[in-house]
Structures are given as structure tokens and as C-alpha cells.
Amino acid sequence: MQISVTPSETVSLAAEKSQACRCRRPSVKELCSFLSRYSALLIGCGATCIRLEHNIDRIAATFGMRIVSYIMPRHISLSVIDNDTDESVTMVVETARTPISFYVNTRLSELSWEIADGRIDFDEALQRFHHIATCEHQNGWLLLALVAVANASFCRLFGGDIVAMGIVALATAAGYRLKQILLSQKIDVWVMVMICSLVSSVIGATCEVMNLGSTPHIALATSVLYLVPGIPFLNSFSDMLYRHYICALSRFIDAAVLTACLSIGLCAGMLITGTGMF
Predict the structure, then answer these.
(1) What is the DSSP secondary structure assignment for residue 214, as one 8-state letter?
(2) What average pLDDT does the structure give for the chain?
(3) CA 164 to chain centre
(4) pLDDT in tens, 20-54
(5) How far is residue 30's CA from residue 69's CA, in Å, rounded to a whole number?
(6) DSSP 3-state assignment of 94?
(7) What is the CA radius of gyration of the chain?
(8) How confident is the model at residue 19 (pLDDT cuts 50, 70, 90)?
(9) pLDDT, tens digit, for every residue of 82-136?
(10) Are 87 and 33 in contact, with CB atoms under 8 Å apart?
């Protein structure tokens, strides 16, 4: 017996097939593996613990599962539990050591909402995550220019004249470019901050050494502001508010050490140029 199918029925069957494909439910192990890598990158790029919890809970709930997480400064333990069968899988992953990036942070949060809203399926989510994790999304030279302009604006905000602003922009551009190079070479962050602070402070002291402008002390003081670890300080406060005390303390100590490294580089630059307190 031959069964005829009308064009409208063909379109309906195709739509149902597409919807079934979109609703593919990952296994507990698949979801746990994905969320472990997702969590490691999200924390590494500068997200707070509460944002991580909300994002992974949102994704897990979409597939009828729940999360029990244990977030430590350098490791994350995730247990994914199926609500229907109580099957569970636990994985421990090391947090990614990547530069802080608001762009990656935002893209990962958007990915969690796309999954929760049903706009992409699990396989598409894996592809999207791989793209976010591996592709270069920002123009390094444009970022360098914007940081230099921003730091020069801080100089003006603190009362610096046009000469001081120009010197600060130059010091910031040189220091930030050096920072990009050292990070690409996997140099230790503490060493990188000291070197960049030293270079920027030496250039920033030009105003005072060569008697340029009327606010040389402001140029020197603001030449290293781009290295201040403001995000780790803010994240430590946020983690403390949500009772992630271990992560809060760890981030605060990291920020304090980076500030100390910045100060060492600044003082070394002042000593070399014979400016300031030396």
C-alpha cells in the first residue's frame, strides 16, 4: 500500500524532526564534562563565584539535572545529578590560567542563557564554547590604544596637564605592550607586573627629570594605574558577600601581592631616575 504525503505534512515532519534534534538530552557524564570546562574558563577569565553558580545551575536545569559544586581558588569540583534517575558524575578540574576578560565572561554568560532559552542544542553549545575558548576575539592593538587613552584620562582627572597626559599615555602604551608580550611568553604574573611597573614609572618620571609641564608628580603617580588589580579586589568582596570565604580570601591576597609587586616596580623606577621619595 502506497502512502502519499502532502507538502504541508512534509514541512510538519521536518519541523518535528528538527525539534527532536534540538531537544537531545546529553548524558550525565557529557554534561558534567562540559560544565567542568565551562566553569574552569569562566572563573579563570574573572567571574565571581555567584555568577558561576547561577550559570551552571541554569544550564543543568535545562536538561533536568542539578549541580552540587565546590569552588576552590585553584580547583572546582562539580557533581551533576540526574533528577529522574539520581545518576551522578563528579569531576574535578583546575581553573584556567587566562588573563581577565570581560568579553569572554560575557560570551559565556550569554551561552548559558541561549541553552536555557532553547535557542541552541547541546551539540551547538559545545561548538560555541570551543569557539569562545580558542578564538582571539579582541584586537590587541586597539585594546592597547584604549588603555593608554583611559590612563591618560585618569591623569587629567587627578589634575594633570596636557604634557603629563601625553607622557602617561606613552608610559601606559609601552608598559601595556610589554605586558602583552610577557603574558604571551607565559612569564609569571608577579614578575610581569614588576617589570611593566618599572618601565612605565621610568617613562612617567620623564616630566620631572626633564622639567616638562607643571604636574610631573601626577604623571609619575598615574603612569602605573593600569596595573592596579581592581577586578580581583572587587571579586573578593563579592565572594565574601555570598559566603565564599576561601575564594574571597585567596583573591584578596592575590590582589594584595600584585599591588605590592606594582609598588616594587614603581619604587625601583623612582630610584633609577632619582625622583620622588628617593
Answers:
(1) S
(2) 87
(3) 31
(4) 434 578 999 999 999 999 999 999 998 999 999 99
(5) 16
(6) strand
(7) 25
(8) very low
(9) 998 989 999 999 998 888 888 899 999 999 999 999 999 999 999 999 999 888 6
(10) no
C-alpha cell at 222: 598615574
CA-CA distance, 146 to 151, in Å (whole number)?
Answer: 9
- Start-to-end CA distance of the chain, whole Å, equals 99
Strands, DSSP E only, in the chain? 65-71, 75-82, 88-94
Q: How many CB atoms lie within 10 A of CB 117?
A: 10
Q: Which long-range contacts (CB under 8 A, 24 or more apart) does 21-25 make?
A: 21/121, 22/118, 22/120, 22/121, 23/118, 23/121, 24/121, 24/122, 24/123, 25/63, 25/64, 25/122
DSSP state of 120: S
* Residue 156 cell numbers, joined: 587629567
